[in-house]
Design a protein that fits this description.
Layout (H helix, E strand, L loop, with lengths): L2 H26 L4 H16 L1 E11 L4 E12 L9 E10 L1 H5 L2 E2 L1 E5 L2 E4 L27 E7 L2 E5 L9 E13 L5 E9 L4 E9 L11 E12 L6 E2 L1 E11 L2 E15 L6 E11 L6 E10 L2 E11 L6 E13 H8 L7 E13 L6 H4 L1 E13 L2 H15 L2 H6 L10 E10 L2 E11 L2 E10 L4 E10 L10 H6 L3 H4 E2 L2 E11 L3 E5 L1 H7 L1
Parallel strand pairs: 4-7, 5-7, 6-8
Antiparallel strand pairs: 1-2, 2-3, 3-5, 3-6, 7-9, 8-9, 9-10, 10-11, 11-12, 12-14, 13-15, 14-15, 15-16, 16-17, 17-18, 18-19, 19-20, 20-21, 21-22, 22-23, 23-24, 24-25, 25-27, 26-27, 27-28
Length: 523
């Protein structure tokens, strides 16, 4: 073949290829704003199984392929009872002809983005939900991929099922998403302001593929840091929380594992703050905010506790119910007292074991006033820090043991502080601690009481019995002992002396005494 014919053949082949490419570009690349607008709305409607509206779109070809659009609204098909799934006030798209032919958009910027996740259609929360990974709900077929999407100052809104409740809103100050497509996981990083408690969340992870039939089934996973969260929005407590962790699952079932620290945690009825560290394993429903706490391990000062429970939405009430079961196996009473009693030093020290269930109902009341607590406790080696109170306990022990006379005659130094062991049940509601059963023992005696303690005024009202080894006449000395011998038989029961007693007054100035009215009734 001659060189001339060879050149013609090559030129013809190149022309043919260029013609095919040109036809492909014409087919894939819209050359008018109307065509592009139609393709955008049809593609989004098909991929998302949604109803799509687009206010306007203008296409430019110089210096690159460039489009500007306004008022894009995407509504989940058939959900006219809730606001649109997605609203974009304006957007720009930039790409090259080669990328467009490959069905790639190189860069998209969104302004005024608002994502609104509707409540689940399923009214039966107890019904099991499927966890599909493939099927008609996931779109398969030719895809348009956005290489990078930027959307700053957007909003994510979770719509509750109860229309009377406020929507949960997160302000997205920074959002970057890569490889944006309908049928793939999309890497993202974002900076978000949390609503309650207020604070900044920085997160990186992946989102998708998009579930067409139920957005709540869309997979999500990643890691996060939560900084400067102000707990002061919850009336009755305060502190600044910081947390880190990871999450995985679906929007409606997010499994989160993390740690949180509050270096200055404080309850407003307490005397001071304490450092609080919490490790947690939780399942979060991202569509309504309900949180199931499978395990919580917390430490403050020298006390550790474990808890299980959850934070749940309440229909018709602002806020959420918190329900927990708490166990303290090796705690210190003074640590709890530091948070619960307004005093420069704890009124009592000792080892603490506790099992309790507590509920903090939804509403705007102070945490102390709405907290409901019920359980049992035991205190080992309890000692009162108020000298006058501990002195009365020491004296009670000596009297009950019949050693008061010997102690007065002896020239020895003052005896060591007497330790008491406590155990009982308790209920806390409306700021008042009710103790239906309280028992504690000291050398020579045992006490069984019931009564109440008001947290805010710190007033005490208890009644019960004192059980002593010694007889009544042995609890005093001198002529009083001789006179009381006649009373010994009236107080002896089953080899013990039983004396009705009462404790009243305030935490710092309690009043101990015999319950004279009950003594006469007994007689």
């Amino acid at each position: 073949m001659s060189p001339r014919r060879r050149r013609w053949l090559i030129g013809s082949a190149v022309a043919a290829v260029l013609t095919i490419l040109a036809i492909s570009v014409v087919v894939r690349i819209p050359f008018s704003s109307d065509i592009l607008s139609k393709r955008v709305t049809e593609t989004l409607a098909d991929r998302l199984d949604a109803e799509v509206e687009l206010g306007g779109l203008t296409l430019h070809f110089f210096p690159t392929l460039y489009a500007e659009g306004t008022d894009l609204t995407i509504r989940h098909r058939g959900r006219t009872d809730v606001p649109p799934l997605l609203i974009i006030k304006s957007f720009t798209m930039r790409t090259s002809l080669l990328s467009a032919w490959r069905r790639h958009v190189e860069h998209v910027r969104l302004e005024g983005l608002e994502i609104q996740i509707p409540p689940d259609d399923d009214q039966d929360d107890a019904a099991p939900r499927p966890a599909p990974t493939s099927g008609p709900h996931l779109f398969k077929g030719p895809q348009v991929v956005v290489d990078q999407l930027v959307a700053d100052e957007g909003r994510l809104v979770i719509i509750p099922r109860d229309r009377a409740r406020l929507h949960r809103t997160w302000e997205m100050h920074r959002l970057r998403v890569r490889n944006v497509g309908i049928d793939t996981a999309m890497p993202f990083d974002a900076t978000v302001t949390n609503a309650i408690p207020p604070g900044e969340i920085v997160t990186q992870g992946s989102f998708g593929p998009w579930h067409r039939d139920d957005p709540g089934h869309t997979p999500i996973g990643g890691g996060f840091t939560f900084e400067r969260a102000d707990l002061g929005v919850f009336k009755g407590i305060s502190g600044i929380l910081a947390s880190t962790g990871t999450y995985s699952g679906r929007l409606d079932t997010i499994h989160a594992i993390g740690d949180a620290d509050v270096p200055d945690f404080k309850v407003d009825v307490g005397a001071g703050a304490a450092p609080l560290h919490v490790s947690y394993d939780a399942v979060i429903d991202g569509t309504n905010g309900d949180t199931r706490l499978d395990r919580v391990d917390a430490t403050f000062l020298n006390t550790s506790l474990t808890a299980r429970g959850g934070v749940y939405d309440v229909e018709g009430v602002k806020g959420r119910d918190i329900k927990m079961a708490v166990d303290i196996d090796h705690g210190r009473l003074e640590d709890v007292m530091r948070l619960a009693v307004k005093s420069p030093r704890p009124p009592m020290t000792g080892g603490l074991r506790l099992q309790a269930h507590f509920v903090i109902p939804a509403g705007e009341m102070n945490v102390i006033d709405k907290l409901r607590l019920e359980g049992r406790f035991s205190i080992d080696g309890g000692r009162f820090t108020e000298p006058t109170v501990q002195q009365k306990i020491n004296e009670m022990s000596m009297r009950a043991s019949g050693k008061l006379a010997k102690a007065k005659l002896a020239a020895a130094p003052a005896p060591a502080l007497v330790a008491s062991d406590f155990q009982g049940r308790f209920k806390l509601a409306n700021g008042t601690l009710e103790i239906p059963t309280l028992a504690f023992g000291i050398p020579g005696a045992a006490v069984k009481l019931h009564g109440t303690y008001a947290l805010r005024p710190q007033t005490i009202a208890f009644a019960g019995n004192l059980y002593m080894d010694a007889k009544i006449s042995q609890t005093v000395t001198g002529w009083k002992s001789i006179l009381l011998k006649v009373a010994d038989p009236f107080f002896r029961e089953n080899g013990q002396t039983v004396v009705p007693i009462r404790i009243s007054g305030t935490r710092s100035a309690p009043s101990f005494g015999m319950d004279v009215g009950r003594i006469f009734k007994k007689g």
